[in-house]
Structure of Selenocysteine lyase/Cysteine desulfurase:
Amino acid sequence: MALDLEFVRGQFPAFAEPSLRGQAFFENAGGSYTCAPVIARLERFYRERKVQPYGPYAASRLGGEEMDEARVRLAQLLGVARDELSFGPSTTQNTYVLAQAFGQMLAPGDAIIVTNQDHEANSGPWRRLERLGIEVREWRMDPGTGHLDPVALEALIDDRVRLVCFPHCSNVIGEINPVGEICAKLRGAGIWSCVDGVSYAPHGLPDVGALGADVYLFSAYKTYGPHQGIMVLRRALGEALPNQGHYFNEGALYKRLTPAGPDHAQVAASAGMADYFDALARHHGRADGRAAHDLMRAAEVERMGPLLAMLAGRNDLRLLGPSDPEARAPTIAVVPARPAGEIARDLADHGIMAGGGSFYADRALEGIGVAPDPGVLRLSFTHYTSAAEIEQLMEALEAVL
């Protein structure tokens, strides 16, 4: 069943906002539009529940229940236990705390593997563990294509490797990595896996339970929600890592790696993400929100086709990552002949909202021979982007390139 775009866009107040009329949003990888259920829940919490939660009086009790609802429903969508999901102020912050815990658990001489395809949030915190005597090995992508080859990973693994950190897909390369296959091999070798899903999750929440990742991280504000980082930490690893929270919270799995108190209102509002995914699935005759993944993904693949064909066919720019829409997410970066920031400014005059720069992926750009400054022009969209907006983008590119 084709995605009902009119229904989808009706769930996002931004598309009815007069100040945004006529502008096509192509910087979704930096943060998506927020869906109406999230906004409604956030406003309700601030109006009616802005008290200390989990107390005996009604406003407090209801506030706590809404926070719990967010955790329970998102965990169900992700195929994990409710206490294996936790909220933090951002994915970067969650990763730093996670790395701190690993630094306390690992011993000098142990090794971890990182990639040069990652956003800095899933690279820098792990590389800093070298200060503790932990060896950091780099799984490098192909310098010509940006492809991250699982065969190259196998050559890095020995009995000293304890953890491998890699992205579900890069925020500048866009190619979708075979997470399930990689995690299965790591699990068979007794190695933990940490997957950065920030650039993948906006295109359909994955079944993390089926993927087999020990850690899966993504950002709610890029998946139509509030500015929170969401971390799935599977029980076996979560209980093995040293507690990073208050000592009296050590027995609560979802509190062990979140030392700061959560933003109560934003956690509660995150249930609105589940509201949206459920509504999307039901509208299309599906049982629950887990079906939203395939609906969203199919629409994006269809939209990507004409744009990728156009970009791949030009001789005045370099397309990063695959030109096959089935192999990638719609986070599309190109290296133009003149500075990307200039082109982004020119595109704004044509009603195109896009950006230029390195997007915190300096190592990835350097790994494929691109200078982080001026970087790339990034054109990122999601399932709510229309065919007309793709056409508007292509016409604008023809005019400014």
